[in-house]
Amino acid sequence: MLDTMLLNKEQQQAVECADLESTDSISNNNQAPLLIIAGAGTGKTNTLAHKTAQLILNGKSPDRILLMTFARRAASELSSRANRIVEQQLMKKTGKGKAPTYQSIKISWMGTFHSIAARLLREHANAIGLESDFTIMDRNDSADMIDVIRHELDFTSTVKRFPKKKTCLDIYSRCVNSKQPIEEILDAHFPYCRQWDKELTRLFAAYAKAKIEQLCLDYDDLLLYCYHMAQVPEIAKQVREQFDYILVDEYQDTNVLQAGILMGFFPTGKGLTVVGDDAQSIYSFRAADVDNILNFPQQFSPPARVISLKQNYRSHQAILDVSNVLLSEGTEGYKVELFSDRKSGTRPKLVSVEDETKQAEYIVETVLAAREQGIELKKQAVLFRSSYHSDRLELELTRRNIPFVKHGGLKFLEAAHVKDLLSILRWADNPKHKISAFRVLKLLPSVGPKIAEKVINSLTAKHYTFSELLDYPMPQVANELFQALVKVLSAIHTNSIVWSEQVNAVVNIYKELLEINYDDHFVRFGDIEQLAQISQQFPSRQRFLTELTLDPPQSSGDLAGPPLIDDDFLILSTVHSAKGQEWTNVFVLNVADGNFPNEYAAGNKRSLEEERRLLNVAITRAKDELHLMQPLKYWVPEQQRHGDRHVYGAKSRFLTEQVLKLLDSTHFPRIQLNQQEKDSAKLAITDIKKTVLGIWDV
Question: Under 8 Å CB-to-CB from 251, ≥6 apart: which residues?
Fold first, then answer.
């Protein structure tokens, strides 16, 4: 039995799924569907790790546990924590310094919804008419394919500008993940594209056909195909029989397809535990549906049990009081009231400033003062609703030579050289993948789109046999490299060289292409070597390409820039990117109507509630100090304004009388008057009042 002394009462209940005073069988209770509402900072990961460890200590096979998260790293962290807990329990039981009989377990079925869907689709591909060696396209590849089809359909030569490729992909993705008709999606989220509904429908139909012809699935297809597969009784039964326990993290972020996959495979909820916090459901722009978690208990008969984690281990009570009141004034949700053992702490501040310049000055001065008191820059964060809100602050930080990092830049796989190398590997894996083929061929000297297209057409005519391209007449300057490239592609596709050597073979051929195409090739080659090392962690080419596409690394050498001063830096982040993070001191920019809540949410009740939750996420990132910034005037971009470059900020409707009672209001810069000036000001105010009343002859 698991020692749960380190858990609080609610966490123990969630781990055991039984009242502590109850004599019910823990095993039986652990089979009933359970919803754990894990408020901000309440130890969700620790609770899930203990629940996983208990299953293992009770003799449950790791192969029969399905663990689904929204990031592979989160799943790995849960697995490693569970291993540590199991090992500690065994050491305690034996009374020795180590547990000699214990070997670290590996939960083979753990990962993101997309990666689990990909594995299930490959396992059952033949049963649903899908070839198991399909290629998974990342978002950029999908956008590129849509762009090609836009041109083929001649939509780019219209008098009025047709939506760009990424906008088209966003619309397509929204339609698929929300299961809503294109007309509804355009009306609600892309009204400026409403006139193109018929053309977009044709575009998406052609896009779907092209993917099928090229044996490709995009991110949305993984969920869509898996959702429909879950509705097939024979397949759903097979999947259901694979697992005894299903643990799902961040359930508030699921869309209707993800919830449908879960309910299709596990309709009775037997062994199903989902964890989430409706108060942190802030991704509706990605088609996440808060109703999935709000309605979860009623999906089953009898209803699923709900256990709320209320003790916060991050913030002191004064910060939590603001969060609790803010959420209590909303119209939906479980409204879990958080508490902390840290009863004392600095009251949160509402700081009024004249404009964004003063806002930047206040933040810089306060951040530097905190640094002098021993709080490192990287333990402080500035959060904002939209990315452009930090523009003025970034200028001030740069002017004062204060290092900072802004969350939300290019990811590793978005770096051009990394995409190049992966495209070679993807094309070798799937000769029908035109997007990768075009990218690779255009890396060759003197090879443009026309020659690339002819090469691809030749490959198609030769039934996708790479070796047949060795006689293709290429420009002389490219011929030697082309010959070497084709030999590598053929060797990888036919597995003439083992997987462990395939990436190095690609690296060897790509190194010369890298030098031809990039001036800073020496810096970029470091990423290529890193990618080669990463590949050795995967058992096959298929798993490598799948996992890397679905859950990429976050950094890229060519984007790193010069070293940061003292290896310390201030964090700038959108609130959406800050979810799951915490800092000692937090500043929230532009807390005014138009930003919190966003102006586009004003007329929609559900949107307003999400904006409330978004502000709450920002508030609950703070451990010790919270500064809500309220500029009287701030800049808005061209597409949002009518007239002046700046707008005057109205007080946020979320800052109600009850919330304001919990904040210390201040103005920056604070006006300091001596006693004589104060007396003079009082007399002036009296005269002004008399003048105003005199207008009305009072």
Answer: 35, 274, 275, 276, 292, 293, 296
